[in-house]
TrEMBL record:
The keyword Membrane applies. This is DNA-directed RNA polymerase subunit beta. Residues 1-23 are annotated as: Disordered. The chain crosses the membrane at residues 37-63. It comes from the Bacteria. InterPro entries: RNApol_su_b/EpuA (IPR024596). It comes from Saccharococcus thermophilus.
Amino acid sequence: MNEQQREENRESKEKVQKDETRTERRFRFQRTRLIPIWLRLIIVAVLMAISLAAGAMIGYGAIGGRNPFEVFQRSTWQHIIDFVEKGTQRK
């Protein structure tokens, strides 16, 4: 009977060790986010706006041969809209 008790103890210890290993794995792979998702979305939106402004400045300044900061003036965009809508008829 001693042999049977030893076998049962060994099996129960193995089972406890397996359970502990599973919980350790669960905790080991659980990550905390350094940057929350909502902040990531805001960062992406800001970076996209900066990219849009930089691209417009490069296109208007370098390719167009004008002052890059004129791209932010309302009259510049009104001129572009008028140029695009030149051939269309408004109702």
